[in-house]
Design goal:
The chain has 148 residues and is of the alpha+beta class. The chain has five helices and five strands.
Length: 148
């Protein structure tokens, strides 16, 4: 089974973040510009939270607040669920399912190495299944299948 490190090595280690005092509006704009659903909240390079589209919908819009005058720290998730590079896709899938989160920061000694999403995990599972199917087809037929 693939590890978090292998996923990051394939997709890259780039992360996007905001400071706790940033306005929610600016965080939303950055998410839209980058085509992502969550941002890390960093203070002095230390992970202090995560803000997602879900946080915005539940803690700003539904509460009648304005993204133009609400700081990220007021709505961010502070108890961030995170993983280590050596953890497996299977462990991460169990975690996102149990904790009902979509993004997992990857940390080593409080240092952010990247972020993986539920989409990254699903892709890794599908890739693993495709690989196994091809191996079984080769074993059964004695010939590799040609790409379609």
């Amino acid at each position: 089974m693939k590890t978090v490190k292998q996923i990051l090595d394939e997709k890259g280690h780039a992360t996007w973040s905001v400071a706790p005092g940033s306005l929610v509006y600016d965080a939303l704009k950055l998410m839209a510009d980058k085509g992502i659903g969550a941002l890390l909240v960093l203070e002095h390079e230390k992970l202090v939270g995560i803000i997602s589209e879900r946080d915005y919908a539940r803690k700003v819009i539904l509460k009648g607040k304005s993204s133009l005058d609400t700081p990220v720290k007021d709505i961010m998730t502070q108890d961030v669920i995170w993983v280590r590079p050596e953890q497996t896709v299977e462990e991460c899938m169990a975690l996102v399912t149990e904790k009902r989160v979509r993004h997992l920061p990857v940390l080593v000694d409080d240092r952010v190495l990247g972020v993986i999403s539920i989409g990254d995990l699903v892709k890794a599972v599908i890739d693993e299944k495709d690989f196994m199917i091809k191996q079984l087809e080769t074993y059964i037929t004695g010939y590799p299948t040609l790409p379609s």
